[in-house]
Design a protein that fits this description.
The structure holds two protein chains of two kinds.
Chain A (H helix, E strand, L loop, with lengths): L1 H4 L2 H33 L13 H28 L2 H32 L8 H20 L5 H14 L3 H11 L19 H42 L21
Helix pairs in contact in A: 2-8, 3-4, 3-6, 3-8, 4-5, 4-8, 5-6, 5-7
Chain B lengths: L2 H26 L10 H6 L8 E7 L5 E2 L5 E7 L4 E7 L11 E8 L5 E9 L7 H10 L5 H9 L1
Classes of the chains: A mainly alpha, B alpha+beta.
Chain lengths: 258, 154
Amino acid sequence: MINWLANPARFMRLSAKAVPWCSWTAVLVLAVGLFWSLMVAPPDYQQGDTVRIMYVHVPAAWMALSVYLFVAVASAVALVWRHPLAEVAARAAAPIGAAFTFVCLATGSLWGRPMWGTWWVWDARLTSVLILFFLYLGYIALANAFDDPSRGGRAAAVLALVGVVNLPIIKFSVDWWNTLHQPASVMRIGGPRIDISMLAPLLIMALGFTLLFAVLLMVRMRTALNERRAMALRLNAGAIPAPRPGREPVVSANTVVP
Amino acid sequence: MTRKQQRLGLLALGMAALGGATVLVLSAFNDNLVFFYSPSELKATAVAADRRVRIGGLVEANSLSRGADARSFSFRITDGADDVAVLYQGLLPDLFREGQGAVAEGKLRPDGIFAASSVLAKHDENYMPREVVDALKKSGHWQEGGAAGMAQKK
């Protein structure tokens, strides 16, 4: 299955068909989800309308974690099996995951001010999610820090795998330690502690965020593969000198620009 | 052993070592990672008088009283087993009320009263519309959400 999908040419063919379908589904699901959660869903008995921030905050947090897991798994596949698409997928996913993490932190802060009485506290949940954000930024920086892209990819893949220990810490921080952040409401032993009238739009929003991630990931991967192909074509045609690691491309003084 | 298997083994070994190290570090720092102490933990651990600490728990029912200037408050924070009297001057967050979770930051005075410089409200994990709460209350199945959430942990 992985072998079959890992063929870049096959991925280009399949994703060309999948991108428009996924895009329209994502737009539709997000439109329904936003209308439902912002207009239809009832206000909370304690928080009133402030609860509506939750419909963006919680799916963004789920995506922040699951995209990181995706980056880590793709990095492991790239390190061990050297599949050509795995590293492309990991690199393409990281900035999307960083954006979801930022949305999670920002909306959480906006919610915390009126509800808790503070924008930010250094409790275990908030701090571990901030570390996740820095892990994403570190991954992106490291992947692009080398002149030789494959070396950067390998170093970044190791960082992504080291960062995996942070995921269970984020998930269980609210159970292991006293935190200001509330415990899990949906994915908990004993069933959700959230009324169905609020759980339904929340799950729709989560589905919309997942589709949005799939679309952005495919578009970014396609761009990266096209870029590689363009570079290879230019190299074959001899139009520009091959960029060598650690050196600027040398342009001869005799080159006449038409 | 092929090179793929070697790399896979190395990766598994590395992850296992990393996971083990993390578990050890976290269990060693366990006491320092809490955001707040519960009242009984505060009494069990000797805290220096001038050290700033946070205490958290439920605001005890019928314990909140307002001072003459409407900006000073006194209330008791409880974890079911023990409780601490808190004095606070300032604004209280929207969610703050009796029976709900709260976290106070400040110093424990020698007379056992906690002088708070800031008070945060703690939200519980329950989300529901007002009508559902009314229906639950009517049928007698209602438990004050914060009480259920925080009492279970202790």
